[in-house]
Amino acid sequence: MTTKILALTDALGNLVRFVLLPGQRFDTVGVAPLIDGVCFGGLIADKAFDSNTIIADLNERGAKIVISQHSRRTFPLPLDKELYKWRHLIENFFCKLKEFKRIAMRADKTDQSFAAFINLAAAVINSR
């Protein structure tokens, strides 16, 4: 089995919160617990997070929506392309996280120990 890591970072690319999901689950399933109770002005995400429920939740919060749209969307939302360029911060975080072989190889047997090592690796990344 594989494991997906859904992560929320701040404007500097530092880890705020993450959720572990089974590899075969849709990314949209983990968004609600990921953003629950967190105040933010906008969400920058890729096409995997293009869901009507996520967009409705973000509209209720008054957050700016910067999500790349699927081509099958009937009424595409406007995309701020200059702001979308900042999505590289989350990509950079995952690249730094995968420098830790134990995370890249999913060496831990339990989700609890895997999550603990992700927290430890994020602390090391932030201290650099």
From TrEMBL:
Pfam families: DDE_Tnp_1
InterPro entries in the cross-refs: Transposase_11
GO molecular-function term, one example from the UniProt record: transposase activity
Domain of life from the UniProt record: Bacteria
Domain Transposase IS4-like: 2-124
GO biological process, one term: DNA transposition
Coiled coil region boundaries: none
PANTHER family: BLR1914 PROTEIN, PHP DOMAIN PROTEIN
Protein name per the record: Transposase
